[in-house]
Amino acid sequence: MIDxxxxxxxxxTINLDIDxxxxxxxxxxxxxxxxxxxxxxxxxxxxxxxxxxxxxxxxHTKFSAGMYEELAENIKPCMLCGKCTLxxxxxxxxxxxxxxxxxxxxxNNL
Amino acid sequence: MPxxxxxxxxxxxIGVVLLFVFCFIKWFKWFRQFNRLQxxxxxxxxxxxxxxxxxxxxxxxxxxxxxxxxxKLVLGYMHASIALGWFLLIxxxxxxxxxxxxxxxxxxxxxxxxxxxxxxxxxxGEMFFTHLMDLLLCFVLSGIGIAMIKRIYTxxxxxxxxxKHVIFDKFVMISLWxxxxxxxxxxxxxxxxxxxxxxxTETLGEVISFVFPxxxxxxxxYFETTWWLFYSLALGIFFTSxxxxxxxxxxxxxxxxxxxxxxxxxxxxxxxxxxxxxxxxSRCGICIDNCxxxxxxxxxxxxxxYLLREMRYKRLKAEVANNCxxxxxxxxxxxxxxxxxxxxxxxxxxxxxxxxxxxxYVESVQPFNAIGRVAYYSGCMSHLTPGIINAMKNIFExxxxxxxxxxxxxxxxxxxxxxxxxxxxxxxxxxxxxxxxIRESNANLLVTSCPICYQSFKKEYKLNIxxxxxxxxxxKCIKNKKISITKQDLKVAYxxxxxxxxxxxxxxxxxxxxxxxxxxISVSNExxxxxxxxxNLGNTALECDAQKKIRDAALQNLLxxxxxxxxxxxxxxxxxxxxxxxxxxxxxxxxINDNIVKFDETI
Lengths: 110, 603
Known about the structure:
Helix content of chain A is 42%, strand content 0%. Chain A is an all-alpha fold. The termini of chain B are far apart.
């Protein structure tokens, strides 16, 4: 076969019917989180990220996409110091976001 | 019928009995809820000299309302006229009754003395007592008058906003308002017939007899008794409902002052002491006017007065507890001196989210041998304002002081942000690590750049070395002539950070330092009245736009006197103001570093 430099992907399933309830719940309490442009400033400045692979951007993205595996464990290292909130160019209340994600995950047993 | 009895006293007597029964039940319950530490403190101090200042404070606050007077003169007069006036009415009335009646008399006689004493023979000083009692009644009525006007036009007492009361409170308030006018009418009616009234009651009696000229001798008994019954009913209703309304503060505040003077404090979770504080709140609403959330955002129902009320009636919502900057502005103004932010923190206490081992990673920070050095903790926020860190490093070097920068590359938070959100257990974990680091380093002094960390190290940590803020350190250096500074011709307005000023009472050090380097101008709301920059870590409920509004108000206040530069002593405040304007905002350390004289040659 001639190599054209690309290939056809293997078939895979993307679940678009994820449970949106936790997402809606977060929307109610921290409306500003939808403004996120995934720039990663928060993660770059994070104190906890200096020690661990704690990554707010990843957690935020995963939560928004409904991928809750290990999220409850991953979010634990945050020290709530607030550097991320202060540097966020979109004015997202990240401390509230973290607290509320923790709370929602807990409430939904995720 | 016995000599000093008339059925109209029954409502009053029932009211008094119920009042004391309810109060004793409440006090007993609260005392039972003290925790072990509080009981130990109480046992230790109850027989010490500490109760002498407590009694003095009780007299000054409960009778003379010193703090309310300090706050607003008219408000102080209003409160003192009702409380002190009523107290004197009871005391003078009791003295009058004892002088007039030989032998024993029932306890209710002084309260209804104009009725029961109308046919008594002349006694020494009768005129004096009669007129004095009238004068006191006049005093109380003036206060009631102001209180009534205050409900419609709040500015009369210098307040912009007063508390929105629950219906029950309004009902009790009206019964209180009615007591004294009814007493006046009842006394006047009696005075007109028996001529035992003073200047006020006698005159009003004439007016009443003019309005109701047809009251004959037969019906007069009914006419008179009806008014006295109304007076007694108002008293009875007020006394019975008092323990369940905001007026419970009358019988709680003296105890609270006493307990506080004995050394009792709020704990991490609500205790019996919290119950005392909740009931001691008179819901005056002074905290509302000063709350930045009300002033700039007009947020209703989140201020301390509402927090305490909802807590007391056990219907507190998490939104109310969370929506607060924890700037301590209300604590500084509260005339009862309640620990409002501590109580709010108790309500944020998160037990169910407590998980051990979140912060195992902090163990990777290795201790440093810093004997003879100063430990410098710049804090998380200062890492966003590296100018402050560089300035401090330079000052250390010029002062010839060896230092150890604890969080140079890996920052462990001091734990206060977690603590303020109620994560007590997690905060403890961070505190443990930081304490171990500092203790093992054997440093002799801890200097912090961030007021949040400063308050945390000072109040929550148990360190064996002194903790000072960098402004205090610079002040010391200047005093000991370790550094010298040239004076610049700049007009500087200083912003008091909440955590440094109201939190730790450091007002002088930054000002003394600034006076050495620049021309310090005073701003209208400073020291304990200073505005919060809006970015305080105590709040997670406010969105960025709301925070900005609060910040802008603080900034406007600083810019009023047209300074050349704004100085502050908190990286958070600095960052907040810098985002808002192109105006120059500098930390005290940076300003000093700009003007420091370097003696490279001399050393």
